[in-house]
Every structure is written in C-alpha cells, then in structure tokens.
Write a structure and sequence with these properties.
Strand content: 25-35%
Distance between the termini: 20 Å
Number of strands: 18
Helix content: 10-25%
Largest sheet: 7 strands, mixed
Order of helices and strands: EEEHEEEEEEEHHEHEHEHEHEHEHEHE
C-alpha cells in the first residue's frame, strides 16, 4: 500500500441528517480483506431511510451499500484476485456462529453487519475494503450499471423465497429499480404472465423499454381507483403472486385483495418503522394465502452477476442520474423528489 494515499475523501454521517465530506484514513485491511478504489456506488431509497435515522443503521457511518470498484491492494492471505480486477461488493458480513447462522439462516444473523448500513463503512468514499469472500468479478457491464447488482441480488433472494410455479400469473406493484429487476427474474423463472401496476410516468415508460412485463397498468397519481378496478375486472381470479414493491403500507394493505386463493403476497418494499397494516385473518386462513417477507440477500451475488453481466437481465436507463461525492445533497434530493429512477455517486 506504499503507493497509495494515506487519506481519502468520504461522506460521513455523525448522526441522522448530520453529514459532511471529510478526509479520513484509508481502511485498515484485516486478514482476508481486499482494498478497492471505488468507481461507482448506487444511491437508493434505503440511503434516504438511513439519512433520516430509519432502517437499521448505526452511526457514525460512511454509507453506500451498492459498491463497484477496482482492486488496488489486498492482505497477504488473499487468493484469486489481482490488482486491476473489476469487482462488485456484497455488503453483508455474517458472524457464522449465532443461533441463526448455525441453522443455515445467515440472513437472520444476530450479529449481521452491512457495509454502509450497519457496523461497517461503505462505498461513498474514494476507497473501501471488503473481505475477499464478498467480492465478485465483473467484465462486461459498466461501473454505473453494475451498481444495480446489489439491489438485483435482493430481488434474486426474493425470487428464491417466492419459488414461482411454471405458468404462474403475477402482479408487481411499483416500477422502481429493484422491482424492475424482480420483474425480469420472475419472467425468466416460471411466471408466464406478469402485470406491472405503477404510477404513470418515467418509471412505467422505462419498464416498457426494458420489456419487463406482459401487461402495464399506469396508475393515475390523482385517483388510481379506476385502474385498480380494471385490474380486478381483467383478472377475476386474482394472481398467484402479488409483489408489493412500492413501499406504501396503504398499497400493501389493499394488495391482499388481488391475491388468488392459494396465492402468495410478497412484502418487498422498504416500509417506515411506524407503518402498520390490517388484514382479516379469516381471509388469510380461508383462502390459504401465504405472506412472504423478503429482506436483503445472502449468497445471491454469483447468480445475479451472471444475469446482469451477460445482459440476460436488462439495465439500460435504470440509473438515470449520476453525481460526484460533493453533490451528495443533490443526489439525496433526487431520490426524495423521485426525479431519479436510480442515482449513483461516481468517482474519477
């Protein structure tokens, strides 16, 4: 590391809503760690939740959990990587010995850590370090589009939990970046008919350009009740799978009414901690509805990289705004006001 700088610029939060661009030392490498020069790091709704003190974040923190970079150094015991390798970083680190890890349920790890979210610094910095087992080489996809690998991995985890049967009909509510990934995975994994229902505008037009669904229902931003009524009319038996990916608890509460008897309702959006829903237990019981929660991912990066790096899942146009680190306030506002479908911080 002799040729590397001793300090780097980073976005650092001291507490919710209190942040600055600061000079900090380069990460110290633990055994098995790889140091990367960050090329791009995605900005998403989770970062807005972190900014506001929601989600599971702990402070102080360098956020950024969708990191793409180039290998510049590594610990002596690292194997399989060379300086110059392009890599995508899985942000999670698991203890391996708690109650859940010992049962093979690592995502529920009692000492779960996530770079840029919980316990470990992330990719909104010029350099970042990750354990070698959480870095995956990429070759064809651009650095900016590769920031979608982490959210797409979450979609891949959701897909495994849903386990769609061949010929399933599915309704996806919301057309954000991870929802568009989920839509494409579903269509390649047994869903024969997919409908996307989302607010009219740029995200819905993007969904069409990606050929993400079979049917598209643009929802009026003033009163969407006519469109929802039409969905029911066109699908009188409902859907085998309903994925709520908008993050609206109100929409989630109503989504159960579009689930076919024996079907599955997937809570896939990121909801405020204060959000509550109310469902009649008799409906869940009598219709044998399965309610699935899908949070984050573990071990999904290899398959997700294969899909995105090969182009089998389309990414063009999803990241529609990029910013420099010093423009963090603008990047955050683009997520808040929804002018960005997906944003990324880029580095020289």
């Amino acid at each position: 590391m002799a040729s590397l700088p001793k300090t780097m610029k980073a976005l650092r939060y001291e507490k919710p809503e209190v942040w600055g661009i600061v000079d900090v030392p380069l990460p110290t490498l633990r055994p098995g760690d790889v140091l990367i020069k960050v090329k791009a790091c995605g900005v998403c709704g989770t970062d807005l939740h972190i900014h506001e003190g929601e989600f599971i974040a702990k402070f102080p923190l360098i956020p950024g959990h969708e990191t793409i970079g180039e290998v510049v150094a590594f610990a002596d015991d690292v194997k399989g990587f060379s300086v110059g390798d392009r890599v995508a970083a899985d942000n999670s680190e698991l203890c391996g010995h708690c109650f859940y890890c010992r049962r093979g349920q690592e995502l529920l790890c009692e000492d779960f850590k996530a770079h840029g979210v919980l316990g470990l610094d992330g990719g909104f910095a010029e350099y970042a370090s990750y354990t070698q087992g959480r870095l995956f080489k990429i070759h064809n996809i651009s650095d900016v589009d590769a920031t979608l690998i982490e959210p797409a991995s979450c979609a891949m985890h959701g897909l495994e939990k849903i386990a769609p049967k061949a010929g399933s009909h599915a309704l996806l509510i919301g057309a954000g970046p991870t929802g568009l990934m989920m839509a494409q995975f579903l269509r390649q994994s047994g869903v024969s008919q997919l409908t996307i229902a989302a607010p009219e505008g740029s995200k819905m037009e993007l969904a069409k350009s990606l050929d993400a669904a079979d049917f598209y229902v643009p929802l009026s931003r003033k009163d969407a009740s006519p469109q929802w009524a039409q969905i029911k009319k066109d699908n009188p038996y409902g859907f085998d799978i309903v994925v709520e990916a908008s993050g609206s608890s109100k929409v989630l509460e109503d989504a159960i009414n579009y689930v076919r008897r024996g079907g599955k309702l997937v809570c896939y959006g990121v909801y405020p901690n204060s959000a509550r829903v109310s469902w009649p237990p008799s409906k869940i019981f009598g219709d044998e509805i399965t309610i699935i929660g899908s949070f984050s991912e573990t071990y999904m990066f290899p398959s997700t990289v294969d899909y995105l790096d090969s182009g089998k899942v389309k990414t063009k146009g999803i990241v529609n705004k990029t910013f420099k680190l010093e423009q963090w306030g603008e990047a955050l506002e683009s997520i808040r006001n929804k002018s960005a479908i997906k944003a990324a911080i880029v580095f020289d």
